[in-house]
Design brief:
Strand 2 (about 60-65) and strand 3 form a beta hairpin. The chain has 6 helices and 3 strands; from the N terminus they run H-H-E-H-H-E-E-H-H. By secondary structure, it is α+β, with helices and mostly antiparallel strands. It is elongated, with a radius of gyration of 15 Å. The chain has a single domain (about 5-100), classed as Winged helix-like DNA-binding domain superfamily/Winged helix DNA-binding domain (Arc Repressor Mutant, subunit A). It starts with a helix and ends in a 14-residue tail after the last helix. Helix 2 packs across helix 4 and helix 3 (about 35-40) packs across helix 4. The chain has a 3-stranded antiparallel β-sheet.
Length: about 110
């Protein structure tokens, strides 16, 4: 990852609503959630949720799949792992063990939509 890739991700997470959506989808795990459930869980109007889901998807943080009439969203954990690695790869002059930084891992084995 580089700054050109990281900046849009940070921009998409700078909205409190988008951050809440992303955290909800991380909590949901590999099964993800359909758009209507996301809107309901966060008490958002459907159009507002759709706007924010589109921005998160465009940044690469979310994967989306069509299931009949519904769209299912999942947190793209590999992108977040790359972002964390980008932020910490030069920690303590490239020696993260000196800083006490935990190795970057994803919480889920599979990151497929």
């Amino acid at each position: 990852m580089n700054s050109h890739t990281a900046v849009p991700i940070f921009e998409s997470l700078s909205s409190p609503v988008r951050l809440d959506i992303y955290r909800l989808l991380v909590k949901a795990g590999p099964d993800g959630l359909v758009a209507g459930r996301i809107a309901a869980d966060l008490d958002l109007p459907a159009s507002n949720a759709s706007f924010h889901l589109k921005a998160l998807t465009q940044s690469g943080l979310l994967a989306v799949t069509q299931e009949g009439r519904y769209l299912r969203y999942r947190a793209h954990m590999a992108v977040m792992a790359e972002l964390i690695a980008f932020l910490t790869d030069e920690c303590c002059q490239g020696q993260p063990a000196l800083c006490g930084v935990a190795p970057t891992t994803t919480c889920c084995e599979s990151d497929t939509p």
